[in-house]
Amino acid sequence: MSLIERILELFCNENDISLERFLRKKGISRRTLILLKRTPDGITRNGVLCRSVDILHAGDRIILRISESGGSTLPNPRLIIPVVYEDEDMICYDKPCGVPVHQSSGHYGDTLANAFAARFPDKTFRAVNRLDKDTSGLCLAAKSRLGANIPHEKIKKVYYAVCCGKFSAPMRIDMPIGREEGSAIKRTVREDGKRAVTNVFPIDGNEKYTLLRIILETGRTHQIRTHLSAAGFPLAGDMLYGGDMQDMNRQALHCGEMYFFHPVSGREISLSSEIPCDMKKLI
Known about the structure:
Layout: E1 3-11, E2 17-18, H1 19-25, H2 30-38, E3 43-45, E4 48-49, E5 55-56, E6 61-69, E7 83-86, E8 90-95, H3 112-119, E9 126-127, E10 136-142, E11 156-164, E12 171-174, E13 177-179, E14 187-189, E15 197-205, E16 209-216, H4 223-230, E17 253-261, E18 268-272, H5 277-280
Parallel strand pairs: 10-17
Antiparallel strand pairs: 1-6, 2-5, 3-4, 3-6, 7-8, 8-10, 9-10, 11-16, 11-17, 12-15, 13-14, 15-16, 17-18
C-alpha cells in the first residue's frame, strides 16, 4: 500500500485564535487533526512547527502536510461509471441503478468503490453521500482526506421520485423512523424512532403515477421510501415498501441535484443529473 503526501496552504485572517479552532473552522476534522499531530512537520506556521494550542495572528501562513495510505479495494476497470464533476479532492459519479456504493456480501467487484479503485489505484475510496443499490443519481466521493472534510448536513440534495397514485399537493412528512422488528433492512414509522422530515412537491403525472421533487430535512436510512409508503404513496417498483411492480423493477428514486461548498477551496458547487428514462416512461 503506497503512501501519498498532500500539502495544503492556509492563511489566517483572524487575530488571537488557537490553531485548533482555526483549523476546525476551516473544516479540518478532529481525526485529520490527530493525524497531522502525529506527522513529522505535519503543521507549520511561517515555517516553524506549530502546536494545536498555539495562538495565531492575521497573516500567519499555515502549511499542513497530510500523509495518506493508498487504496486497497480490488479494481474493476470494466466497470465504467459516468462522472459529472472532478477535481483534486472530489469526484461525483452519476450512478446507475443496480450498482452498490460499497462492497458487501455478493458484491465484491461490481461497486462504485471498485470503479474508483481502477481509476485511482493509489487513493482510498471515501463515499461522502450514499445511495441504495437501485437508487440512481449523484454520488459524491472524496479523493483525499481533505475532501472528506464536509459534513453530510452541509450537502443539499434534491431527489426525484415516481410514486404510485395521484399526489396532488405539496406535503411535509414529519414522522419518526426506526428499524422494523425482525428485519435487518426495512425501516418503518414508529414512535421510538428518530425524527425524520421529508418535503414532497408534485411535478407531473397521470392517474397511476406522480413525478415528485423531494427535499430532505434529515437523512435517515430509506427515509423517502418509508415516508411515502406510510403516506399511502409508495414508490413505483419498490417491492420492499409496497410499490407497484408492473411497470418498474426497481424503486423509482433518483438523486438529481446536489449543492455544497467545497471543503478545500470554499467554492460553491452545483451539480445535476437528468432523470433516467425508466422513470420518465412512467409519467
